[in-house]
UniProtKB/TrEMBL annotation:
<dbReference type="InterPro" id="IPR045335">
    <property type="entry name" value="FtsQ_C_sf"/>
</dbReference>
<keyword id="KW-0812">Transmembrane</keyword>
<dbReference type="InterPro" id="IPR026579">
    <property type="entry name" value="FtsQ"/>
</dbReference>
<keyword id="KW-0472">Membrane</keyword>
<feature type="domain" description="POTRA">
    <location>
        <begin position="28"/>
        <end position="91"/>
    </location>
</feature>
<dbReference type="GO" id="GO:0090529">
    <property type="term" value="P:cell septum assembly"/>
</dbReference>
<keyword id="KW-0131">Cell cycle</keyword>
<keyword id="KW-0997">Cell inner membrane</keyword>
<keyword id="KW-1133">Transmembrane helix</keyword>
<dbReference type="InterPro" id="IPR005548">
    <property type="entry name" value="Cell_div_FtsQ/DivIB_C"/>
</dbReference>
<dbReference type="Pfam" id="PF03799">
    <property type="entry name" value="FtsQ_DivIB_C"/>
</dbReference>
<keyword id="KW-0132">Cell division</keyword>
<dbReference type="Pfam" id="PF08478">
    <property type="entry name" value="POTRA_1"/>
</dbReference>
<keyword id="KW-1003">Cell membrane</keyword>
<feature type="domain" description="Cell division protein FtsQ/DivIB C-terminal">
    <location>
        <begin position="99"/>
        <end position="212"/>
    </location>
</feature>
<dbReference type="InterPro" id="IPR013685">
    <property type="entry name" value="POTRA_FtsQ_type"/>
</dbReference>
<protein>
    <submittedName>
        <fullName>Cell division septal protein FtsQ</fullName>
    </submittedName>
</protein>
Length: 232
């Protein structure tokens, strides 16, 4: 009886060793790439993951695969997993640009700034954000959304932040407007409430409007050194 038990134990160990050896030698023979969104293709991503072709199935480092994929500027999110017996699946979600940054980069909905290798010429129709530090992009994007909702009839096209907390805004149907970033919404509403009262000739001669005043605003005329202050 003991001998029979020993035989079965040895057979089980041999079977386990065989299975372990088989599993340990399984390799990645196929890499499937799934892409979600525009501006991204499986062909463009394949060189980033081709190095794992032939890698051991179970010892494959999926985190390294994800990091290699997310390094592509157009990838917003990367996933990777194994499919038995020899497939690596990679799924990449593309960035969705909603604005430009300093005419050299793009900005997604989260305010993340990324630099596409092909440049930003194809996205000239997007809102432009400018500033000394790309880290300010989330706050500027949020401000741009608020101002666009406050004055959709003027059509915000560009927002430029400058040191000191001021922003210069450009519009398709209004003159450039200086605002304080912390009070931008209140100041813009003040202009909306009084702009129709400004004489047409003065509006036509306007170069830009400065709303960074507590009791009114200044209209700077073209080719003039002095503006005209309008108080409430």
């Amino acid at each position: 009886m003991k001998r029979l038990t020993l035989i079965w134990t040895l057979l089980a160990l041999l079977l386990f060793a065989g299975i372990y050896t088989y599993l340990g030698t399984q390799q990645i023979e196929r890499i499937r790439i799934e892409v979600q969104g525009e501006h991204l293709s499986a062909e463009a991503l394949r060189p980033r993951v081709e190095a794992w072709h032939g890698a051991r199935f179970w010892s494959l480092d999926l985190q390294q695969v994800r990091e290699a994929v997310i390094a592509d500027p157009w990838v917003a999110k990367a996933q990777a997993w194994r499919v038995w017996p020899h497939t690596l699946v990679v799924r990449a979600t593309a960035e969705v640009p909603v604005a430009r940054w300093d005419n050299a980069a793009l900005v997604d909905r989260r305010g993340h700034v990324f630099y596409p290798p092909e440049g930003t010429q194809a996205f000239a129709n997007l809102l432009r954000l400018d500033g000394p530090d790309p880290k300010a992009a989330p706050a500027l994007l949020e401000l741009a959304v608020r101002l666009s909702r406050l004055a959709p009839e003027w059509g915000l096209t560009r927002l430029e932040a400058v040191p000191g907390g001021s922003v210069l805004t450009y519009w398709s149907k209004q003159h450039p407007i200086w605002l304080e970033q912390a009070q931008a919404g209140v100041q813009l509403r003040r202009l909306q409430q009084t702009w129709d009262a400004v004489k047409p000739a003065l509006r036509q001669a306007t170069d830009h409007i400065d709303l960074r005043y507590s009791n009114g605003f200044v209209i700077k005329l073209r080719n003039e050194h002095d503006g005209i202050e309008k108080t409430e």
